[in-house]
Amino acid sequence: MAISAKSTQEFVPIKEVRDGVIVLKDGSLRQVVLATSTNLFLKSSDEQRATIYQFQSFLNTLDFPTQISVQSRRLDIRPYLLVLEERINLQSEPLLKLQTREYIEFIRNFTEQVAIMTKSFFVVVPFTQITIRTDTGILGKIFGRKNTREMERALQLDFEEKRSQLEQRVSVVQEGLARCGIKSAPLGTEEVVEVFYKVFNPGEMEGKIQIS
């Protein structure tokens, strides 16, 4: 019995990433929001309770589901070491060169013995609605199979309407996180692609996604 091979893309529910918005194959949308972290252990007991209660209140006010994803990856220290190597070439004092080389060796040996991890926190905001079908469905009956321009215009309008609703939800999430003392920012198209690349390539080290 022959088994037909299937590509990885067939198992991924993503159709495309447009303007930072993830369009799934079922027509629903997702927006990924990058959030900073907060260390409760550095806060007083009263501040800890206030932060927890504020976050609980934020979750209770949401009338739509959200997903919080945490990615832990090993930090790539190589770019930092390259910067230090360049500084050695620019230094004229022999003592500074020696100290910089010793520092480089210390960092290199330390990171080989201890895995330095970095964590990224993402909030996935969804918007699901009855999708507009393609030319084989509702749009085909309304505009006809040959009127592809009108069909594309209708699909774009449908996307813009759903994205507007999604952006409102993202604003609610960001405002709620801000009340908890957490900064956040929606990811753009390239950043979203980078996040999913890391998901499907876990061997890669940490990239450059960050909140400015």
Question: Can you walk through the features of this model?
Answer:
The protein is α+β, with helices and mostly antiparallel strands and 212 residues long. It folds into two domains: 8-73 and 118-200, no CATH class; 76-115. Helix content is 47%, strand content 18%. The chain contains six helices and six strands; from the N terminus they run βββαβααβααβα. It has helices at residues 45-61, 78-90, 94-113, 138-143, 148-179, 189-200; strands at 14-18, 21-24, 29-35, 67-74, 117-127, 184-186. Strands 1, 2, 3, 4, 5 and 6 form a six-stranded antiparallel sheet that branches. A hairpin with a 2-residue loop joins strand 1 and strand 2. It starts with 13 loop residues before the first strand and ends in a 12-residue tail after the last helix.
Proportion of residues in helical segments = 40-55%
Strand content: 15-25%
Biggest sheet layout: 6 strands, antiparallel
Order of helices and strands: EEEHEHHEHHEH
Alpha carbon gyration radius: 24 Å
- Unreliable spans are 132-136, 207-212
Pairing-aware structural class of the strands and helices? alpha+beta
Number of domains: 2
From the N-terminal CA to the C-terminal CA, the straight-line distance is 55 Å
Principal-axes geometry comes out as extended
Average pLDDT for all residues: 82
In DSSP terms (H or I, runs of 4 or more residues), the helix count works out at: 6
Number of strands: 6
Protein name: TraC-like domain-containing protein
Domain TraC-like: 19-197
InterPro entries: TraC-like_dom (IPR058596)
